[in-house]
Amino acid sequence: MPAGGQDLGGRTVVVGVTGGIAAYKVLDVVAELRRANANVRVVMTKAATRFVEPLSFEALSAAPVYTDLFAGGEAGPVAHVALADKADVVLIAPATADFIARAAMGMADDFLTTFLLAVRCPVIVAPAMNSRMYEHPFVQANLQRLSALGWQVIPPDHGWLAEGKYGPGRLPAPERLVTAVRAALAGRATLSGRTILVTAGPTREYIDPVRFISNPSSGKMGYAIAKAARDRGANVVLVSGPTVLEPPPGVTVVPVVSTQQMFEAVRTHLDGVDAVFAAAAPSDFRPRQRHAQKVKKESAELDIELERTPDILAALGESKGNMVLVGFAAETENVLENARDKLVHKHLDLMVANQVGMPGAGFESDTNIVTVIDKSGKVETWPRLSKAEVAERLLDRLEEMWGVGTVRTSSS
Ligand SMILES: Cc1cc2nc3c(=O)[nH]c(=O)nc-3n(C[C@H](O)[C@H](O)[C@H](O)COP(=O)(O)O)c2cc1C
Fold first, then answer.
1. Which is the closest atom of ligand 1 to the Cα of 96?
2. How far is the CA of 132 from the centre of ligand 1 (A)?
3. Are 355 and 332 in contact (CB under 8 A)?
4. Do domains 12-186 and 195-402 have the same CATH topology?
5. What separation in Å is there between the alpha carbon of 298 and the centre of ligand 1?
6. What pLDDT digit, counting tens, does each position of 138-148 carry?
7. Does 16 have pLDDT greater than 80?
8. Which of 193, 227, 276, 329 has its CA 20 to 30 A from that of 234?
9. Which CATH class is domain 12-186?
């Protein structure tokens, strides 16, 4: 079995490549899908063939590439319909502004658009272009039309674009695209089109350049939520304090150190976010003064005056709008009472509480025992579960709130 996911043997993935500068990156996507044993068929627009030779895709997919609606070939003269019958999922990457407009209008002026009108399987589209083009109201309106049709739109990453400008428009990493294909094939893309922000890990508040105040949070709970949400097709932003964990591929990771930085990173990435899981354990206090040089141990005593750091959850609660807000509370006493109090005062939708010090629960452990409290006052205590399973159950609760999703048949 290939690394990183289930075997895709027997599944047909059609990859549509359009004429954008990022077309070459899709060679890796095709290679990765082939490594997972998928049958990959590539369709290229005429413009795409100006960026990458069809031969490269042919070699990597081990199959002829479709470029010409009227070419006929092994599948006969109506190859676009034959291919639509076979497709289990379609990924279009990169999707140009031009293609997006043609698809949104239901045009059928080349192989790709004609094929798409005959397709009945899930379609994923990954736009990539110059930021100003991407933000143009025509492009945005066309993407909305495609979303309304049920197509999954994977928003582009922010980054340096080919023209040397910074902004949204970069094609997401191949792993992100492959993950989306996997989720669609597994019928688990229940959160597709949603953006979920997760905070994870501890923060550090430096006293001097070599000493800091922190806590034993490992980040495992937040990382598990990020991975599970990604696997359900969500776009995930993971704002993470320092941890030793490997971030799940295909999520946008924003590394931070202090609570102030976490606060600012959350605010910066809040645009378009549908739900926040605040699983981090940001330090509530920081030294009022940070020493520029290491404090010498010869000093007989050291008084550290502490001040409050910003309350990230409370700030989110104050301006949450329609966003779903899930808080986490690690308590040493009166767990339920404290958790209820936070739920109300911070305007949360769900509070996940656990008692620090219980074996097999809380910081650093791979398992957790949590009590989940919702806005209506309903309280559920779950048995000891892996953090991965806690993450799945929390996402089930989120899907219930949104009225989406499927009933899971296994607890794995
Ligand atoms: C050098 C170059 C790079 C381009 N890169 C992009 C791009 O990244 N995204 C995009 O939407 N259009 C891009 N275009 C414009 C498209 O190639 C053009 O709109 C073309 O008609 C797209 O055809 P298609 O949608 O059939 O593939 C680029 C054009 C040139 C000349």
1. 11
2. 14
3. yes
4. yes
5. 66
6. 999 999 999 88
7. yes
8. 329
9. alpha beta
